[in-house]
Amino acid sequence: MKLLRAAPIIRFLIPKLHQTMSRSLSTGVFQNSQPLNYRAGGRVQPVDSVGQEQAYEPSTGRVIATFACSGEKEVNEAIQSAKTAFKIWRQKSGMERSRVLLEAARIIRERSEELATMETINNGKSIFEARVDIEISWQTLEYYAGLAGSMAGQHVQLPGGSFGYTRREPLGVCVGIGAWNYPFQIACWKSGPALACGNAMVYKPSPFTPITVVLLAEIFTEAGAPPGLFNVVQGAAATGEFLCKHAEVAKISFTGSVPTGSKIMEMASKGIKPVTLELGGKSPLIIFSDSNFDNAVNGALMANFLTQGQVCCNGTRVFVQRDILQKFTEEVVNPCVLGECRDDMTCVKEEIFGPVMSILPFDTEEEVLERANNTTYGLAAGVFSRDIQRAHRVAAGLQAGMCFINNYNVSPVELPFGGYKKSGFGRENGQVAIEYYSQLKTVCVEMGNVESVF
Ligand SMILES: NC(=O)C1=CN([C@@H]2O[C@H](COP(=O)(O)OP(=O)(O)OC[C@H]3O[C@@H](n4cnc5c(N)ncnc54)[C@H](O)[C@@H]3O)[C@@H](O)[C@H]2O)C=CC1
Questions:
Q1: Ligand 1 test: best mutation among 312, 422, 429, most atoms within 8 Å of CB?
Q2: pLDDT over 70 at 2, yes or no
Q3: Count of CB atoms situated within 10 Å of the CB of 229
Q4: Rounded (to 5) percent helix, strand, coil in the chain
Q5: ∠ at Cα 66 (62, 68), nearest 5°?
Q6: For the complex shown, is ipTM > 0.90?
Q7: Cα distance between residue 445 and residue 260, in whole Å
Q8: Most CB within 10 Å of its CB: which of 62, 78, 172, 384?
Q9: Is 282 left (phi over 0), alpha (psi -120 to 50) or beta?
């Protein structure tokens, strides 16, 4: 079982990192000394503030950064900086945007060990998972670089030689607000499609993880993005609210909890701004007795214990068909697996956002589908079975935006990701994300004379 090897791997790797990396970027000694806001192509101290936050290194408990939370003026400065860059960026062809994104992806790839180490220091996840996050991040930029050059509208013929066409246009200044569990990756999932479409972005990371997104901002600048294309403001709820309420923001893409998502939607509604909401979940994983047993066990571990269980789409309600229940339970036990669970228990109904798997026995397909869907969330779901017809039938019946058959928690950038029900709406990744960062203009062209009806 791969995940059980996570702790030894990080212990093994840390001495090596000490040897190969500068002292300032080693686990246990890193101390931030630079401004963490970024606008107009450089790091800046905010012009005003609403309080102060501290960021920690979870493995040691040390404070690694103390920073001011951006106030209303600073948020406005960042938005004006983005507006300036947007005027330049929107005029670029898709191929020109693509080159910048490809170069940013190349730099991330080249600096992946440093970025992964920084992510481990600030987030606390193991280095092998941080490396995967960084890999997904540059792949995201590469993927949207690939799409940037091929964004096109439609040409429609009309009577008398007249015609119409559609143009896919950027929205303007987009705001990204991220959670702390995948700081760098969430920023890439939002900025990749946003910039590919010709938008500029102001990004606010979680105050728990302020460090790596500023490195992403520097990378975009180094890659040739106009100054101000990707800006960073730091802070908590108050800073986030200044962003959401700002009249010149065209769109908000948010990753975080359901209660905050609801507030974001409320603020966006005042300005009629589109939102993408990537929220929490309490996802079901259904294991039929005919599944490949080892795959099902590995899948259940993947579904629960990556990033200390702090993964939005984790399959934390593990429904196991009764005839393999005992064998399965014996196989997956480590901290913390809860057996003999019932659907009405709090641990089964509410998101824990930690490494806790709840095992629930079931007997029939019909019964388990109804119970799996009996939740206000709908982010993800999984099914393990060798019966391919049943697997597809169950996937079709599951009320979730992301369904896995015979695997769990694999999120290639080519596939759209997002939720049903209270897990949010809009999609990240895949071609469809383009629709959430652009708007369609229709141009109707008359080739004849204007016939007056008056
Ligand atoms: N669906 C998805 O893709 C993902 C969802 N999540 C969800 O995120 C949650 C955990 O992340 P947290 O950082 O604790 O979530 P959170 O909702 O507390 O915070 C998320 C972000 O929103 C900001 N924020 C808080 N209040 C705000 C307000 N009133 N206005 C504007 N911004 C505000 C925070 O500073 C932070 O940057 C879990 O519920 C998890 O399931 C996490 C990762 C991925």
A1: 312
A2: no
A3: 28
A4: 45, 20, 35
A5: 160
A6: yes
A7: 45
A8: 78
A9: beta
